[in-house]
Amino acid sequence: MNVISPPSPIVKSVKLSKLYNNHQVVNALNLSIDAGCFCGILGPNGAGKTTTLRMLVGHCPMDEGELSVLGLAMPENASLVRESVGIVPQMDNLDPDFTVKENLFVYGRFYGMGSEELKIRTKELLEFASLEEKADCKISELSGGMKRRLTLARALINKPKILILDEPTTGLDPQARQAIWQKLRELKKQGLTLILTTHYMEEAERLCDRVIVMDQGEVMADSPPKELIRDEIESHVLEVHAASEELVARLKQDKSLARYEKSGDIHFFYGEKLNEALDRLEQGKHDDFLFRPANLEDVFIKLTGRDLRE
Amino acid sequence: MNKLAGTLLFLSRSTSIWSRNIRVWGKLAGPSLMGNFADPLMYLIVLGYGLGRFVGEVEGMTYMAFLASGVICTSAVNSASFEGMYSAYTRMEVQQTWLGMLATPIGVAEVVFGEILWAATKSVISVGAILIVAALLGLVENIGALMILPVAFLTGLCFSSLALLVTSSAKSYDFFLYYTTLFITPMVLLSGVFFPIDTLPSLVQWVAKVLPLYHAISLVRPLMTGGEITSIFMHVFILIAFGSVAAFIATYKIKKRLIK
Fold first, then answer.
1. Does A211 share its domain with A240?
2. A2 assigned to some structural domain
3. Does A83 contact B105 at a Cβ distance shorter than 8 Å?
4. Most CB contacts within 10 A, which of A91, A145, B79, B98?
5. Could you report the per-residue pLDDT of A133-184, keeping only the tens digit for each?
6. What is the pTM of this model?
7. How far is B225 from chain A (nearest CA, A)?
C-alpha cells in the first residue's frame, strides 16, 4: 500500500503583520493551508483579507513575521511563487484593447510561454470558461459574468498550483455566480489549492472546505463551515420584525433562549428549540416572524458584531 | 541564477511588455501616427516656408533644413513623453493593466523598463516617418542620416524615463500639464529647435545646455546636413545620464505606489 504523507502546508505564515499609518491591518496572523484545500476568508471591510492575499504574492511588503508559499520564503521569492499562482483580482483588469482570445495570449506571454503552447492553452481555457463563441469579441462586448470567467481563465493560463480569488463573484447575477461556482468546484477536483475572499456567506458555505473569519487583522474562527455553524452558534434563530416591547418581553421568557439581539426593528432570538416563544407567536396576532436554522451569516455576525464597517 | 541569465530574463520580460504595447499600437496605428507625425510635419513645412523667406540662411543652411533637425528631435521628445505620461498613466491607474502584469512573475522594474523601451520605439517610429518626408523634401544630405534613428531611440529613452518619473507622482491626467508647460515647452523653445541658441543671453544658453534636448539636437543636426559632430560622447552621456537617473527613481516610486 502506498503511504501518502500528509502534504506540508502550501501556505504558511507565522506572526504575519502589516501596518498602514500605525493601524494594524494584519495582526500576527498564523496561517497554515494544506495543498488541495478550498479555503475561504471572510471578514467585514477592512478586516485585512485583501492585504493578506496581497502579501501571499508579494504585492504588499510585510512588516513583521514570516511567510512561505509553496515552500518558498516570501517576499524574496515573489516572482518565482507567482509562476505557480493564479490571481483573480477584485477589480477586473482585462485589457480593453484586445479581444478575448488576445487577452489570454498576451497574458501567457508575460509568463514567457511560447506561441504554440499558448494556442493549445487558449483553446482549452476558452472551452473551460464557456467563451468559445466570444473568442474574437472585444472586452466591452462581454457581460459582467463573462468578464469574470475570462479573468478566471486568464489566471489559469500558467497552470497554477494555487488560485487566489479576491471577491470573485461580487456584482454578478445569480446565474453568473453559479456558473463561476461550478468552474471553481471543477478546479478543486483537479487538485488546485483555492483561496478566496468573499462577502457572500452562502458562497463560502457551499464551496469551502474551510472558512477563516477575520476581523481587525486577526483570525476570529477557523473551521469547516458546517463545524463553525455547529460549534460557534445556537442551532436556530427566531427573527421577529417590528414587535411591541411587551411581546418581546414575553418571548424572552422562553427557557431555551440562549441569546437575544436587536438590530433596528428586528429582534433576534437564538436558541435550540424556542418552542415556547413559537407557541406564543402562533397564538398571538403578530405574524411577521421567521424561524430558521442558524447559518454562516449568523456566525459571522456573532463573531464580528453588527456595527457597520465603512 | 547567474548574472547573464538574470539579465536575459529581465530583458525577455520587458520585451513581453513592449510587444503587448506594440500589438495595441498596431490596432490604432492610423490616428496614432497622425499625431506623432503629421503635427510636426506641418510645423516644419509651414514655418520652414513662411519664416524661411525672412530668415534666409542659418548656420550656413536653409532655414527649413535647420528647422528639420529641431522638429525631428521635438517629435522624439513629444512621442516618448506622451507615451510615458498619458498612456502609461492609463495603464497604471485607469485600466490597472500593470497590476495585471504584476500578477505574473513580472516585477515593477521590468514593467517600467518595458514601457521605456516601448515609448522610445514610438519616438523612432515618428522620427522615421518625418525623416522620410524630410528626405523627399531634399532636406537630408546623405545616408548617414539613418544614424538619426538610434539618436531618436536614445532621446526617447531619456524622455520616456523623465515622463514616467512624472507619472509616478501623478494623481490625475491634469498633473501632466505642469510638466509640459513648465518643462517641455520652455525647453523646446530654448534648445535650438527654432533658432541657434547663441543668440540667447549666456545664462539662458547655459540652462539650455544642461537640458537633454539641446544634446539630442546637437547630434541630429550634423547627421541631417552632413556636418561634423563635436563632443559626441558628452551629448550621448547627458542623454543617458538623465534617462537612467530618471528611470531609476521612477521605478523606485512606482514600486512604492503599487506594492504597498
1. no
2. no
3. yes
4. B79
5. 999 999 999 999 999 999 999 999 999 999 999 999 988 888 889 999 999 9
6. 0.91
7. 41
